[in-house]
Amino acid sequence: MFTGIVEELGEIVAIEHLGDASRFQVRGPLVTEGAKHGDSIAVNGVCLTVVDIMEDAEGTRFSADVMAETLNRSSLGALDIGSRVNLERPMALGGRLGGHIVQGHVDGTGAIVDRKLSEHWEIVKISLPAELSRYVVEKGSITVDGISLTVVDAGPDYFTVSLIPTTLALTTLGVKQAGDPVNLEVDVLAKYVERLLGRDNGTQDQEATS
């Protein structure tokens, strides 16, 4: 489990295409500290499993395999060598939940629609797939490229977020422009509530007709 608090801006240093998968090498000295084979690291909000840890003159990097399903359902397939990525290690048991509950399971992708600069922050509008709009509410939580953010305005096919200078400086949202894709993960609690209510309604309907 993650919290959506980005620890480090990493960099894609190599991509090996393997037909129905790809192997990424990602530089991230902070998140690789103490990491080992089999550990999880979120890359732009996608939970990946560490294959190897490698050292070179420029620092530590790790490799991770990305399946075709993940490449198709997330924006990782659009990354190239030199792309900057948001990195976060899993939350430690007993640690502070600084953001919100993030699984690292991308629900879909959106795109930056526009950016409006204010004196001390920036308002960013992001497109939203229609099938995810029911999970997004004003003042609710959403994960964008692995960043835990609060929704300012929620529309049928978009939402907006306010980005403080720290977020702009320490994450990929500081440099993404209109048209750039982003990974979206909605609040998992909303999906569980929907599922439970659906089951309750189904049970009630069945009882009413029996």
What's the short story on this structure?
The protein is built from 3 helices and 12 strands. With 210 residues, the chain is of the alpha+beta class. The longest helix is centred in the last third of the chain and has 22 residues, at 188-209.
Characterize the structure shown.
The chain is of the alpha+beta class. Helices cover 16% and strands 41% of the residues. It has 3 helices and 12 strands; from the N terminus they run βββββαββββββαβα. The radius of gyration is 18 Å and the shape is globular. It starts with 7 loop residues before the first strand and ends with a helix.
Structural Rg: 18 Å
Mean pLDDT: 90
Quaternary state, please? single chain
Indicate the overall shape: globular
The share of residues in extended strands comes to 35-45%
Structural class: alpha+beta
String of helices and strands: EEEEEHEEEEEEHEH
Biggest sheet descriptor: 6 strands, antiparallel, barrel
Lateral strand order in the biggest sheet: 1-2-5-4-3-6
Which regions have little confidence, pLDDT < 50, spanning 5+ residues? Answer: 200-210
Q: How many β-strands, per DSSP?
A: 12
Summarize the amount of helix as a percent range: 10-25%
User: First CA to last CA: what distance?
Assistant: 42 Å
Q: If helices are DSSP runs of H or I spanning 4 or more residues, what is the number of helices?
A: 3
Enzyme class: transferase
Lumazine-binding repeats: 1-100, 101-197
InterPro entries: ATP_synth_asu-like_sf (IPR023366), Lumazine-bd (IPR001783), Lumazine-bd_dom (IPR026017), Riboflavin_synthase-like_b-brl (IPR017938)
Keywords: Repeat, Riboflavin biosynthesis, Transferase
